[in-house]
Amino acid sequence: MKTIFSPGPSQLYFTVEDHTRHAFKHGIPSLSHRSKSFEKFYQHTQEHLRALLNIPPSHHIFFSSSATEIWERLIQNLVIEKSSHFVNGAFSEKFYKVSLQLHKQAELIQVEDGKGFHEVPELNTELIAVTHNETSTGVTVPCDFIYALKEKNPRSLLCVDAVSSLPNANFDYTKVDSVYFSVQKGFGMPPGLGVWIVNEACIAKSEELLSAGYSIGTHHNLPSYLANGKKNQTPETPNSVAIYVLGKVAEDMLRRGIEHIRKETVYKSVILYQELARHEKLIPFVKEKAFQSPTVIVAETNGYTKALSDYLDSHGMEAGEGYGSHKGNQLRFANFPAHSKEQYELLVDSLRSF
Amino acid sequence: MKTIFSPGPSQLYFTVEDHTRHAFKHGIPSLSHRSKSFEKFYQHTQEHLRALLNIPPSHHIFFSSSATEIWERLIQNLVIEKSSHFVNGAFSEKFYKVSLQLHKQAELIQVEDGKGFHEVPELNTELIAVTHNETSTGVTVPCDFIYALKEKNPRSLLCVDAVSSLPNANFDYTKVDSVYFSVQKGFGMPPGLGVWIVNEACIAKSEELLSAGYSIGTHHNLPSYLANGKKNQTPETPNSVAIYVLGKVAEDMLRRGIEHIRKETVYKSVILYQELARHEKLIPFVKEKAFQSPTVIVAETNGYTKALSDYLDSHGMEAGEGYGSHKGNQLRFANFPAHSKEQYELLVDSLRSF
Predict the structure, then answer these.
(1) Where in chain B are all domains bearing CATH 3.40.640.10?
(2) B3-10+257-353 belongs to which homologous superfamily?
(3) Chain B residue with minimum CA distance to A338
(4) What is chain B's pLDDT, residue by residue, as a tens digit (354 residues)?
């Protein structure tokens, strides 16, 4: 089977299929989500995810159906009037539009696709939305910038889209209020589960909205998540197989060592960016080194899109298409824990011989 | 492995594990939801579900993460001021509360748990919510009652919760505006996917709300579903494996014959209700025959709950607990296509020998 470099859904993590088979063998799909057995593996997933990502006790972990859903829940639960959005690609822009759809005053802080943010503004806002890794363009927002944003805007809730950056991103969670992702990127799972990490300030804000008479949604509002989460349960019948498998994958990654995974991620990104820098036909889309994402690497293909895509395909590799308006001019390469060093070396060799 | 009679998550349909394995083998988990291959199996699922349930072209089929989510989407998309709810158990009551949480004027038409509705009222309302099969109490609302409701209230949108009644329920879709369910009941799949069937009147109402300046939610609003559905796509990265497997299960059920499945459902329900009627220790919770659900059969256990549950367990069968306040006084038995005649005969024999 081909190696999938599309940035999500992407290559499955090595152990996902086995864990899924195990889930079926042990009756996980038929378990009531109010049963002791469910509570046990829910807790296992919580604990191993917490250990893997180093999430402190100040932050809760809740499950949604997708990161797309979490955009909606963030605005419903945390915003009365205004949110501010750092937009540098399609996904950060979608979140901005979600806020508008929910009739909030959404502030746009935008730079061109492929560019990063330089200035840390003072914002008079309830929620600041930053996309740590723009999956559409391969631009990263450095953690220092994110922490500086919080320092300059201590009363705003800082919410970080880490969809294609976790588990590689090593956040200091004490400096952010919410982080969220979906499992079909860095965790190498089938799509259908989002993970929403929130601190007490988020919980307090949602309770404040509720007390003041605002609607904060229904089953997936934060007080409902919290009340059920305390019992190791979910508000509704969830994608239980995915919750189970996520815990097992987190356990596997812990065993392999998260530092080791992160070092490999750096190695793989360095050899690919080096190859793009010296390549005759390709150039990296993101020019400034500080903003080059280590986990989603985007190449401008200068008319060679189809030829390169076909060439890689014939060598057993599937590149991701450029996103939206960049389709046809770019190819994207995910660099997730599911992509081995050997697969990346083969990718780089193939680009060189192209 | 034990036969699971809990009404959901429940016994897996015979072919689900194989189809899941096949999905992994063919790379479904890593497929982009904007790819041709995705569109192909999305269409396959649509067509086979449509054929199985006899859904006319006037109705669209959309995918959510759960029926619980669909409650929220129904109110967001279809109600400006008022919804009316027929409540006779925990799940119909939850939907009523969803409407209140979204700040609508929710009208309650309530009978005691275990009882049915006799009167067809004239209602001045935008949305009428009926639960075809109350999973918590085993009460069914006969289709004739549902159709009469629509006839008496032609300007209200009639929305039918068919969570634990499909694929057994044989609806005349021309007489209802929306029907919804989740796949972990009658379709015998792992939880994590809801199916939302809506007609053009629902689409028109959501567009009317949008034009008039109301917020109708974000990615899972009806215009967004419609725009993506026309391309055989979903608004967000969905639980694609579940969409794939659902299509395969629908195909299997079509091959087996839906009439055959429905006849077997009747046979199984008749032998269980007969046994409950003549049993010395047990009685059916729902007394009036017209309201006895064929797909979720609830027994009052008169102090024998634990003894019976343990007895069945020792014979390789898992009964469902009573729901909510009925826990401890009742046991529930799902009668889904995944439960064979032989398994039901064994269940009935075991109840007799208890």
Answers:
(1) 16-255
(2) Aspartate Aminotransferase, domain 1 (3.90.1150.10)
(3) B30
(4) 899 999 989 999 999 999 999 999 999 999 999 999 999 999 999 999 999 999 999 999 999 999 999 999 999 999 999 999 999 999 999 999 999 999 999 999 999 999 999 999 999 999 999 999 999 999 999 999 999 999 999 999 999 999 999 999 999 999 999 999 999 999 999 999 999 999 999 999 999 999 999 999 999 999 999 999 999 999 999 999 999 999 999 999 999 999 999 999 999 999 999 999 999 999 999 999 999 999 999 999 999 999 999 999 999 999 999 999 999 999 999 999 999 999 999 999 999 999
For B31, the closest of A9, A72, A236 (CB atoms) is A9
CATH architecture of the region A16-255: 3-Layer(aba) Sandwich (3.40)
CA distance B61 to A57: 42
Distance from CA of B328 to the nearest CA of A (A): 15
Q: How many residues does chain A have?
A: 354
Return the structure tokens found at B59: 């109705």
Nearest CA in chain A to B98: A218
For chain B, residues classed under CATH 3.90.1150.10 are: 3-10+257-353
**DSSP SS3 for A28:** helix
Q: Do the Cβ atoms of B191 and A4 come within 8 Å? A: no
Residue in A101, A161, A218 to test binding to B, most B beta-carbons within 10 Å: A218
| CA A333 – CA A132 distance, rounded (Å) | 17
- Give the integer Cα–Cα distance in Å for A249 and A44: 11
**What is the rounded distance in angstroms from the CA atom of residue B242 to the CA atom of residue B250?**
12
